[in-house]
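Minutes, project check-in
Item: structure for the 377-residue chain
Input as provided by the requester:
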Amino acid sequence: MNGPAAIVSKSFVNVTDPRLERGHNHDLLEMIFITLTATICGANSWTDVERFANGKIKWFRRYIKLENGVPSHDTFGRVFSRLDTSEFLTAMHHWVDQFADSLRGKGVAIDGKVLRGSFDRAAGQSPLHTLTAFATETRLVIRQLSIDDKSNEIPAVPKLLDLMEIEGAVITLDAMHCQKETAIAITNKKADYILTVKGNQQKLAEAIGERFVAYGELGNQVAGLRRHVTVEKSHGRKERREYFCIAIDDDELFAGWAKAKTIGMVYRHREGNVTEHDETIFFISSLPPQIKRLSKFIRDHWRIENSEHYVLDVTFAEDASRIRRGTSPEISAAIRRMALNILQRDTTVKDNIRGKRMRAGWDDAVLDGIYAGFNGN
C-alpha cells in the first residue's frame, strides 16, 4: 500500500479480520480504504461502494493491489458486520489523533445521535445510538462511542471522556448531562465544563432562574453581573442573543457541583422569515465569569448539531441508511465520521461538503488533492 492507503492502513492494521484464513479473497485493509474513499465520494450503501470501486478501479490500483478485483457488496456487508467494534473505534481514534490539534483552551461538544434506519423490527434490533465528542473549533469528530439507548447516554459520558486527553479543554453538554457525576468526571480530567440547566435539575434551574429574574427587575444593574449581546443575520432571519453571567455565591445548592464558579443565562430572540421565537436557557460552569469567553463556547456547542448531525443526515443520508447487519451500523457510522473529518479538514476545494463529495467522485484530480491535503500529520 502507498499514498493515502498507507496512511489509513497504519492505524487500522491491528483490526482483527473475522474471516478464516482460507476465506481471505480480499484484504481487509484494502476494503477499509475502498469504503472510506467511496464514502468520501458519495457512496451511502455497500452496493454504492462496490459500484464506485468498479468505476474507479484504475485509480484504486495506484494505491492498493486488488489482486482478486473489487469485493462484492455482499462481501463488504458480511465482513464489516463481523468486525469488532471496540477494535475498530480504537483504530479510528488513533487515526484522528494523528492530525487533531491539542484541545487545551478549546471547546469539545458532546452529544448523542440516533441512527433511525438501523432499527430492525423483524430482528428485534433497536436503533443504534452513538455518543460523539466534537472539537468545535476544527469541526472534527474526535471520539465515538456506541450505547444501547438514549437512557444510557449519561453513564457513557465519563467513559467517552476517558478516551480523550482533555486537560485544559472546555466540555459543553446539553441539559440531559447536567449531572454532578459528569461535572466531577470532567474536572477530574483537569478540564472545564459548561452544562445547560433545565428541568431535570429542577431546584438548580429554579434557583438560577429566580436570581436572574431578580437581576432583571433591578435593570441588571448588579455588582459582578456581566452581559454580552450578539446579533446575527442570515438567510432573512435575525437572531439576537443576550448572555448574562455572575460568580456563584455561598448557597449550599451549588456546593455539590465540582469546582463550579459561574451561573448564567442566555436569552435568544429570533425573527424574520421564520415564526418569531424566544428562548431562555440557564447554565452552570467551572469557568470564571468572563462573559465573552463563555458566550463563544456556548454558541460553538451547536456546531455538533449543525456541522456533524445535520450534515450526516442530509448529506450522508445517515438517518436513511439501511445498513443493519451485525456491527456494521457502528462501523459504517465511524467511516462516515472519518470521511466527514477529511472533508471538513480539506482546504483544496472551495465548496460545501455535498459539493466536495460530488466533485471528488467525478474528478480523480480533486480526490487526489483532498487526500494529498490530508497527510495524517
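Outcome recorded: The mean pLDDT is 90.
No further action items on this chain.
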